[in-house]
Amino acid sequence: MLTKNKKMKKNQVNKKNQVNKKKRRNRPHIHYLRHLLAFMFAVEEINRRPDLLPNITLGYMIYDPCMLEDKAVQSALSILSGVEEPVPNYSCDQKNKVVAFIGHLESSPTRSIAEVSGIYKYPQISYGAMDPIFSDKSLFPYFYRTVPDERTQHRAIVLLLKHFGWSWVGIVVGDDESSRRSSMELYKEIIQSRICVAFMSMLWPMPYMTCFLLKTTANYRSSGDPINHGREEVLNDDSMSGIRLHGLKDHLFSIEHRELHLYLKNLHFNTSGGDLMHFDEKGNVREQLDLLNFIIFPNKTVKKRQVGYFRELPNDDDQLLRITTEIHWDPRLSQAPFSVCTPSCLPGYRKVPQEGQQRCCYYCVPCAEGEISNQTDMEECIKCPEDHWSNEIRDTCIPRPVEFLSYGEGLAMSFLVFSLFFCLLTDVVLVICIVYRDTAIIKVNNRNLSFILLLSLKFSFLCPLLFTGCPTWISCLLRQVAFGNIFTLAVSSILAKTVTVLLAFHTIKPNRRMSSLFSKYFSSYLMMLGSFGQFVISLFWLIFFPPFPEYNTQVEVGKVILQCNEGSVTIFYIVIGYMGCLATISFIVAFLARNLPDAFNEAQYITFSMLVFCSVWIAFIPAYLSTKGKYMVAVEVFSILASSAGVLGCIFIPKCYIILMRPELNTKTGIMGRKTLSKE
């Protein structure tokens, strides 16, 4: 406490040690005696040196409230009253004038003192109270401290925990209001940083530590030696050389405690280390915290050394934690200790909280297919882009292989070989039919329809070329439409040939010339009518629902299927259904004409061909629906080749056999049969 008295004797130091005469269960801790000695030595050093505060002598009073809030209030009132038994609102000391309070080390007694001193607008400077509540100037407008806000220490603790990867910690709380409030602030800071608190334990009763309240007196300095306590190692001459107290002397001659408050608000000086020291608008100082490493030797001696520091940057949201020296751990530890509830989840895994436990207690679950985690302790896996997929250990997204029925595959090559083989075979049959077009077996069943059927079969065998290879806009647009119209033309030709067979046998009877003329054109009209219906459906398909190529990532895991989107699945099945209806009608008509009396009844072979054709496409539907990706294309290509080959083999191979191997049967008598001719 600073006071003013012009008639004091030289170097007068008023020292009063208030001792609680009541019995205590705990005594002051000798460890904190060094704070008292350092203060006393600093005052004596200022009084001794003429370059600091000439003609001014500082005095002080020391009270020991010993962590007790009630004792702190009693001590403050005693100082203000000037007598041991406090008299509120009265000052009995006419010689000394109180101008400021210094202390306390702990926050709880400091607050008790501040609530009393603030009423009378006395400045108070604490060298240890870090409670954030003191930053509230609406509650403590006259409070200053030379230590940073406790929240600074909390942020430093959190950064230190993160530096070592400690996510499972405990908090030990002192049994006083300030400690409990501070522990809750620290708890919130830790929780917000995604670190878990395993427990909060209260230590009580806390051992009493040496704590004191200082009262200083400002006097005119006289000659004489200052008190020497033999503690020069606490504060030497060099440590004071960097402090500039210009202006303080003038204040102390005619000082009022309100004036000292204004002076402290604008105080700026440099420490011996060259750091600027000043109080901000909240009465705090911006300091760096040292990280100390305590080393315990086998002989129980303890050595401490600085291994790093924490510093708040000009922006309040930025902090810097730096470890500058290797930390010396306990010899029993081979490496830095770790504290976690659950070991870290490696890349490829994600954290799943354990039910009823804190967030730091979790299970490590592998990422799902198509998702990755490329860092440790990820809570959510990252979904790979559409064209990428996760690797086996789920820590990297890799490009998906693009799959389609390519020419380089064995399946596609086999289809290509069979397609070309049957195409050449159809050409051979067509050449044979053209060469022997005037023979009975070619003429009897409308050779023009036979030629059209062979040409449609030839193009049917070429259709797989549109289905194989990389799908493009052109190939997707043409393949189903071309396949549907070509096959419809072939089936319509077969239907017309079947009708031709029936009409041919009716025209051999007398008075049937008009029927023969009608049958000649009716079969052509029937073929065109059947093909026209499919053409209309295809035209509607291309105009309103055109097929297009697309990348499908949903069909097969880890792959991109390059396929043709049909535009409308309904129209696709309408095309197949229309073709199937024509084939069914052809089968029924041919079946009814199977018993016509001739040696070579083509209706029988048409029946077999339509039976093969319908069987293939009936089996196609479930097979097509049960496969995915390129195998759907393979099923359709196989159905095209199989049905086309069935028609070619059942209808034209017997004719080629008669033409080439049994030419004696390739006559009207051989075709119609003797039995038929005798009836005529």
Blueprint of the fold:
Layout: E1 4-5, E2 17-18, H1 33-48, E3 57-59, E4 62-63, H2 69-81, E5 101-102, H3 107-117, E6 124-126, E7 143-145, H4 150-164, E8 168-174, H5 177-192, E9 196-203, E10 213-214, E11 217-219, H6 237-241, H7 248-253, H8 257-265, E12 268-270, E13 276-278, E14 288-296, E15 302-312, E16 319-323, E17 349-353, E18 362-366, E19 371-372, E20 382-383, E21 388-390, E22 397-399, E23 402-403, H9 410-435, H10 440-443, H11 447-462, H12 464-467, H13 473-507, H14 513-544, E24 548-552, E25 560-565, H15 569-592, H16 602-625, H17 630-661, H18 668-672, H19 674-679
Parallel strand pairs: 1-11, 2-4, 5-6, 6-7, 8-9, 23-25
Antiparallel strand pairs: 3-11, 4-10, 12-13, 14-15, 15-16, 17-18, 19-20, 21-22, 24-25
Helix pairs in contact: 2-3, 4-5, 9-11, 9-17, 11-13, 11-17, 13-14, 13-15, 14-15, 15-16, 16-17
